[in-house]
Fold each of these.
Amino acid sequence: MASTPSINIGISEAQRNEIAEGLSRLLADTYVLYGKTHGFHWNVTGPMFNTLHLMFMEQYTELWNALDVIAERIRALGVVAPHGGSTLAGLASIKEAEQKPAALDMVSELVAGHEAVARTARSVFPLVEAASDEPTADLLTQRLQIHEKTAWMLRSLLEG
């Protein structure tokens, strides 16, 4: 059996593990938000059907693609990325949708979800900064921009 080579990227093993734990929570929140958004895409009804159906599709597609980026960063840090619905749901701060809410309630739930993911991403920054982990900082910055913009766009549907 071949041994695994040690990782020497200028970040200690302890720091890599702490960062990976934070990224695992980000992965989990993203996964639950992806599932919620995709489910809402399937089940939205009402006068805003077409607008929300298409918007939710764009959003769940972006979230799906983000999952791979986050998981691959965890792997680059030398840690196994969590997987499986129950494992990810257990790590997530976002709860899955338990029913089919009305269209605007879906929008409200997704606003809250994107804000939760932004908080999770922001919570990892101190660990990343302490380790001078610029690639993870870049990933977190990109995720924050997307989640904050998406929350703003969804919130605008609730105004007036």
Amino acid sequence: MTDPARKPLKKDQAYQTIRQLLLDADDPEVIYSERFLAAELEMGLAPVRSAVERLRSEGIVEMIPKSGVRIPQITYREVMDFFEVRMLLEPFIAGRLAGQVRPVQAKALKALIADQRRAATTGDTLEYHRLDLAFHSTLAEMYGNREMVHALSQMRDKMYRLSKYIHRTHPDRLATNVEQHEKVVLAILDGSCAEARQAMETHLQWGRDVNIAPADRR
């Protein structure tokens, strides 16, 4: 007998699918009607409407009267606030990890860098994008402060959108990105707290400046 608790509700399936569809959209200006989403997901309107309302309440989508929903643009102020919070947390995490990672963790970090370098070399921006997010979340999880992990996870959607924009529109910057990640890892493995903090801070400042450059502003 199938355990009903293990079967995801249609509204939850709709939520996850619509959320990912909108986050992955190449053009954030596209407006999606509920009928289009229902047809795309091959679901009824009820679970789609429930999912859309949940996404709206979480601030992930904005409603366009008589049209549908879309991902709201990220403003200059939001970018600055987003990176300010990350620059308080992530350099601290990198510094505290310096000289403290176990051999198996060091191996995992080196493997991440190798995978990122491979994706950067081949120009696989989608794979690099996934690995970029994995790099930052892995460091936070290795440090183990659950409140910090939670705080960063709360910003994951915005992190996803901003890094996806950089990777998709500037694939030439992937090499720079992976070099910065490698400097963070090397400083951590060398046990240099100050260098690890500085390397992460430099990396985040670079990401912030790329996102607020006048030619790149959304």
Amino acid sequence: MAGVKSDGSDSGLVLLDVFGSPFAQRVSIALAEKGLAYERAEQDLTAKSDLLRRSNPVHGKVPVLLHDGRPVCESLAILQYLDEAFPGTPPLLPPVSDPYARAGARFWGEYADRLHFCGKRLWLSAPGGDGGEAEPGARAEMATVLRALEAELGEGDFFGGAAFGYVDVAAAPFAAWFLTYERHGGPSVAEECPALAAWAARCSRRESVAANVYPPEKVHELVQEYRRWMLGRK
């Protein structure tokens, strides 16, 4: 995982994040794509800091991007903010001259969140993470989400076509979770959505993603640890 990014400039950016958060990873990927320097301030969500509470008083969660001390909350809002606040950097969203494409990118970026929420239902409910039965309907819902994303991807290398952009940044952290979803009763992406699996492989080879997202086996290990912790609390 990346710690502090630096391109030799002073961007006034501090990222409040937490170990392994795919939502925070979105922001780290975006910052890397834009070549923006930032400081990373990892948070403890079991004992939230005053800084986090002040920066995100509504939800008290990460990621939060501080720009010259001013907080921007929620990962997708941060991605859009970076495009607007740093117009001289490579854009994530389609050009302002194409509002239809920009609206579509925002829609699919938000839709990618379903991978996380449906996936969480799978890995919290399937016994032991050994392919057992998951929560009824979770597998079917995950299959629907994956097929919808594959249809939107089409024949392009990335969701924006040839260019890695907003939707790719939003969805790439969850591609590392495909193995975990499958091992907890979800569909096999490689078998059922081969184009999406190929996209995930392309993303994993991209420097911004490889430096900021754990490989699939590591994600699975972390999920198993979290499951044991959750079960131990009951």
Amino acid sequence: MTLGGGGNGKKALPFYNSPSWRKTRKAVLARDHYLCQICLKRGVLEPAVIVHHIDHLKERPDKALDEDNLQSVCAVCHNRLHPEKGKQQEELKQRKARVIQARANPEII
């Protein structure tokens, strides 16, 4: 089973689909009462939907299932923790051509 995250996360997919990860993820969400731990520190109650590796999976695969290395976070906080993932989407947006339809002014024709 490959644990490394690679740049696109596809290499880590088998790990995130494994029964051991699913069990650990469920335990961490329950431990954190399904609340984003980052928002909670600011006094905000926000549901957690992601379990985040504090020490990144590709850098520390030995801590992949270590509950002390995992925290429940909301999608917004997870995106802040991983700004590099948003860059891929920005690059795609920049590549798209913007099409503008031009029409002749009927008053001049």
